[in-house]
Amino acid sequence: MAQIDQLKVHTKINSRYTIFDQSGSLPFSVVFGLCRRSSEDTNPRSSILDTSGSVFNVQYALANRLLQLFEGDGEELEIDLSSFNAEPGPHHYISLPPPNARPGYWTTHCESFLYKIDVESDLARLLKPNTKYSIRLATKALAVQ
Question: For residue 73, what are the contacts with CB-CB under 8 A and spacing of at least 6?
Fold first, then answer.
């Protein structure tokens, strides 16, 4: 069986709420869409990804430069790591089915993982009112086990 050479991750801010509500009334999440899509991936088993200490823990990933946070016009934010909690976080697992188990085109069959931004977190305190942000992968390495 071939080893998985490529795991494409598409990241977007949850489109249900485009504004981060600091009161916590509207739950706000960063949504990751994941799909195994390498043509060389012939392994018939599902892949299990551990989110702890990876890009899927957004606060950890920003503090460890796995993700980049951009403000407004696309300038990367300098994050003051001295007050930022950069713990790997709890273990959550994502199961990705093999490509041969997916009917149709890969973009319509992505698995979703939501990272909820807690209003009391260091990350939430970093976000300024009336400001637009975007998050991008800083590297192709996802730091997953």
Answer: none
In-domain check, residue 43: yes
Instruction: Tell me how many domains the chain contains.
Output: 1
Minimal CA–CA distance to 62: which of 120, 11, 117, 123? Answer: 123
Furthest CA-CA distance within the chain: 50
Q: Phi and psi at residue 125, in whole multiples of 5°?
A: -70, -25
pTM over 0.85: no
For each successive 10 residues of the chain (145 residues), what is the average pLDDT?
A: 48 61 80 78 83 86 84 72 71 84 72 86 83 80 56
Host domain of residue 129: 7-137
